[in-house]
């Protein structure tokens, strides 16, 4: 037998020994909690999901390969560090008199019989004990121990009619059982706390490794942002109710002809400048350049197809419960004072757009807005969709970002920004992320960010502000008092003044363009 075969046999025997000594589910939970470890940490160490660890601890399932051996090794090590407390010993009661008590009759008098020596003092007596042997009543016995007992033990009272039983104490009111939504909310909050802890631990690890050099730690965190955010993504998917397709077969419109050429999807990226104002010359009209905070992070809240894209023609692909990409012929935009919701597109005719763009166009064509005619849909590639697919990841990153801002923790804030931006940019065809290839998701999230920005521009316009410019995912220039329209701050629902090296940034003035 070769050394390799011997090692394999020893490994199997070791796993069998550990399996035979496998702790009960309650002990598995105790060991993890005693060590101060989260389920996410244990899951990462043994190579399974956090929900799998939860199932092992509540007894839903027993540990199974391939993670079982590492998990049992971990439990064995934790048991050595945190042994189970010894069971409490049952106290042994002090020894009592071996002699029985005096027998008393129903009239309250001691029972008498054939005289015989007393069990305690040896003097002959007719009185009997409960077992029928002779025994003086306490005060009559000449034994010192009996005298002491008699002094402290009163004679029994005459037997009378039994007293009524005391009323039974009312049963305690049972604690209300939490509803399924309450249990789900509690589980989600616990999961969010655990996944948020992964972010803070990563920052602490890199700061320790860099010995306090913040620049070096920041570079290391940005370098590991992709694998870290994919781990967060998997953790937040632990309690999901549906599966998704990570590598679906893609239609040609979503494939790049070459590395330098894009696919055929138009994301509706804006580059709007109000035709009545000139940015080249200063004037008397005050303008503020605003910045949307974490635009791509907010755009994770969007309808994403979770399965393989299926082809359809005409209006059959337009369904509020489906999402994907659509070939449309858009209607003309007749509002030069507002950005075109289709973005900075000069070419007329049909164009492939995302579900996020189509939803915006249909909403603006509806009775509430009536800003344009509905586009004509020629064909679609769609799948069943949900708006909450990435919502747990979005909430986790948002909560961690808010904490970082409150604590003035710029390292964590930049690390979080790198995670969500790289998560989106590499979910298409990227050599930097092999765990997923969904270019349709990437396009939809980009388009959702642009659609969100368009909504803010329209809100400003409705409030009486002129929209001077709207560019990219997060830049909006307006006239007037913007603070009465948008809350100011760095939160994801707030706006702040944009400062950059560009001339048209921060607060500046413009003039009316010459006609």
Keyword list:
515 residues; alpha+beta; seven-stranded antiparallel β-sheet; elongated
Major beta sheet summary? 7 strands, antiparallel
What are the segments in which pLDDT stays under 50 over at least 5 consecutive residues? 92-97, 157-161
Shape: elongated
Q: Overall mean pLDDT score?
A: 83
Tally the helices. Answer: 14
User: What is the helical fraction, as a range of percent?
Assistant: 25-40%
Q: How many beta-strand segments?
A: 15
End-to-end Cα distance: 93 Å
* Gyration radius, in Å: 39 Å
Write the H/E string, N to C: HHHHHEEHHHHEEEEHEEEEHEHHHEEEE
Strand content: 5-15%
Structural class: alpha+beta
Quick structural summary:
The protein has 515 residues and is an alpha+beta fold. 37% of the residues lie in helices and 14% in strands. It is elongated, with a radius of gyration of 39 Å.
Any overview of this molecule?
The chain is α+β, with helices and mostly antiparallel strands and 515 residues long. Helices cover 37% and strands 14% of the residues. The longest helix is centred in the middle third of the chain and has 30 residues, at 180-209. The chain is elongated, with a radius of gyration of 39 Å.
Explain the layout of strands and helices:
Layout lengths: L2 H18 L4 H10 L4 H8 L3 H9 L9 H14 L30 E6 L6 E4 L16 H9 L27 H30 L4 H10 L1 H12 L28 E2 L4 E3 L3 E2 L6 E8 L2 H4 L5 E2 L4 E4 L8 E8 L21 E4 H11 L10 E11 L4 H16 L3 H16 L13 H24 L4 E5 L3 E5 L15 E3 L9 E6 L3
Helix pairs in contact: 3-4, 7-8, 7-9, 7-12, 8-13, 9-13, 11-14, 12-13
């Amino acid at each position: 037998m070769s050394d390799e075969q011997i090692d394999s046999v020893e490994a199997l025997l070791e796993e069998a020994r550990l399996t035979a000594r496998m702790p009960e589910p309650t002990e598995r939970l105790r060991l993890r909690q005693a060590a101060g470890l989260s389920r996410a940490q244990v899951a990462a160490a043994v190579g399974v999901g956090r929900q799998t660890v939860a199932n092992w601890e509540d007894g839903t399932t027993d540990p199974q390969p391939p993670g079982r051996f590492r998990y049992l090794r971990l439990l064995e090590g934790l048991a050595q560090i945190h042994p189970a407390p010894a069971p409490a010993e049952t106290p042994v009661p002090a020894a009592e008199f071996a002699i029985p008590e005096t027998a008393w009759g129903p009239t309250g008098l001691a029972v008498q019989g054939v005289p015989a020596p007393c069990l305690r003092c040896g003097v002959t007596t007719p009185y009997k004990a409960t077992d029928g042997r002779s025994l003086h009543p306490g005060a009559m016995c000449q034994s010192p121990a009996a005298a002491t007992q008699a002094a402290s033990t009163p004679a029994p009272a005459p037997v009378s009619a039994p007293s009524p039983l005391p009323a039974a104490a009312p049963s305690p009111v049972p604690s209300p059982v939490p509803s399924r939504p309450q249990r789900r909310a509690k589980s989600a909050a616990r999961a969010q706390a655990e996944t948020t802890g992964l972010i803070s631990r990563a920052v602490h690890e890199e700061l320790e490794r860099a010995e306090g050099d913040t620049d070096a730690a920041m570079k290391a965190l940005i370098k590991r942002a992709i694998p870290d955010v994919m781990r967060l993504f998997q953790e937040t998917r632990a309690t999901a109710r549906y599966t998704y397709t990570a590598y679906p077969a893609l239609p040609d419109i979503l494939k790049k002809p070459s590395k330098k050429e894009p696919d055929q999807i138009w994301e509706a990226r804006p580059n709007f400048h109000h035709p009545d104002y000139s940015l080249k010359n200063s004037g008397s009209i005050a303008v503020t350049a605003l910045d949307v905070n974490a635009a791509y992070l907010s755009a994770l809240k969007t309808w994403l197809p979770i399965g393989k894209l299926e082809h359809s023609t005409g209006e059959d692909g337009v369904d509020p419960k489906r999402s994907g990409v659509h070939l449309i012929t858009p209607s003309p935009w007749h509002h030069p004072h507002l950005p075109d919701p289709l973005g900075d597109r000069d070419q007329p005719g049909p164009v492939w757009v995302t579900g996020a763009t189509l939803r915006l166009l249909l909403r603006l064509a509806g009775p509430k807005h009536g800003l344009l005619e509905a586009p004509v849909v020629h064909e679609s590639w769609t799948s069943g969709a949900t708006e909450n697919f990435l919502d747990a990841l979005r909430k986790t990153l948002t909560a961690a970002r808010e904490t970082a801002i409150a604590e003035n923790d710029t390292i964590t804030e930049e690390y979080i920004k790198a995670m969500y931006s790289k998560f989106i940019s590499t979910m298409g065809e990227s050599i930097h992320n092999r765990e997923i290839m969904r270019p349709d998701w990437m396009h939809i999230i980009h388009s959702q960010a642009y659609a969100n920005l368009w909504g803010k521009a329209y809100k400003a316009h409705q409030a009486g502000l002129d929209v001077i410019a709207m560019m990219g995912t997060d830049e909006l220039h307006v006239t007037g008092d913007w603070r009465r329209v948008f809350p100011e701050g760095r939160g994801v629902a707030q706006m702040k003044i944009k400062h950059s090296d560009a001339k048209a940034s921060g607060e500046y003035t413009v003039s009316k363009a010459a006609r």
